[in-house]
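Summary for the funding panel

The consortium committed to producing paired sequence-structure records for every protein in the target list. Below we show the first two records in order, beginning with the earlier of the two.
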Amino acid sequence: MSKKQLQESALAGVALEGILEKKGRGVVQLDLRYITDRPADIFLIAEAESGVQVRAIADSAADRVWEFLQIRPLGVEGKEHGQWVLIDFGEVVVHVFQSEYRRFYDLEDLWNDAIRTEHAS
């Protein structure tokens, strides 16, 4: 594994801890590194029942990454509505959905050729 892959995996692991700390459900990691024209190398996807919980999970993931790795997101989208929050760390992107929006956008099917790892929540 390259140094870049190790850094990406560490960032994803720390963000995952933040997601699980706030009871994110259905957590899936998609490794997109072997896909041509990918938007990122790793997607972390989780869901929650309410906008309040979506925002809390997203904040926890970003806070945890800052606390342990001193990395701030390049951008955060969707916090104002709390239906789907996207946290862009560059090569690692965290998606936190309300359940109905996750089913609607179905990123796991869209990127079904990615290497998928499910995490117990």
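The next record, for a separate protein in the list, is shown here:
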Amino acid sequence: MRHWEKDTSVKVSPYLQKFPQLNAFHGKPGFISLVGHRGARGLMPENTIEGFEYILDNDIIAIEFDVLLTKDEVPVITHDFYLSKSITRNAEGNWLLKNGPRISDLTIADLQTFDVGGVDKRSSYGSLYPEQAFLSDVRIPKLSDLLELACLPKGQNLFLLLEIKSDLSIDKRKVIEHIVFEIQKRSLSNRVVLHSFDWDLLDECRLIAPEMPRSYLSQMPESSEDLFDKPTEESSPDFTSLNCSIPEAIQAAGGHLWCPYFKDVTVDLVAEAHNLGLPVCTWTVNEVEDIENMIDTGVDGIITDYTDRAKRILKSRGLNWR
């Protein structure tokens, strides 16, 4: 039996006592966690050190970001399995003419020749982020770059929701081991939550890094119309075939945090998750009406590209995010 299949013998763990980093993502009276998505994608180049520093400078203590492995097995922070033509310029400063090559086919030295300091506003993807700053000479960061930032005084209160991308061409255990090594090397396990759409991969995380809690991403097929943020279909469970609810499946898997797509969130599901001991952080919530609705459903955290916008809404309702 897979670990997310319902098993009534599985009991809820005292998550917050065992994993104090979950407090950064757990709602409390008067508090909702704000999590910067890929840093602050709506305002700064995504998944860049510049974007993460912006978050720190603007009073946000939690970020969500994506990690893949290069050809020479260096964990790097980037969302797509390939270089995206919408956010990548070559050494001459020209936008790539097509997507590619794959991150797993490039060494870290290869990656450093590309600039990811802006988005091509002429592209379909770029048109979604008209407010994003345009910078130059910005590189895809190594995971170690962000972890070093978290070790500095300015980053000492930063919590990391680290999404491990499921690259089917690479052994999952190898990816996890390289990521966990970088975290443990800097004694940052107590500030990291491991996070994925691939529930089998999270099962491996449980074995390799039991000291780090696990966050389970989900998106129902009927709400996956976003062409740019869709999960890898091969790596996600078939949620329509579960013999229980998604919160029950996560509890059965021994999970510690549920991160559903915001269009899948209901008051009843949030209440069910809470009854099972699971905090709920929803993604990626950008529009004012949607942020307001997610607050009203009782979610613990909101993952957003527009942290400044979300902060204004929370302030207007007398809520804190730290």
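Regarding this second record: The domain at 15-316 is CATH 3.20.20.190 (TIM Barrel). The chain has one domain: 15-316.
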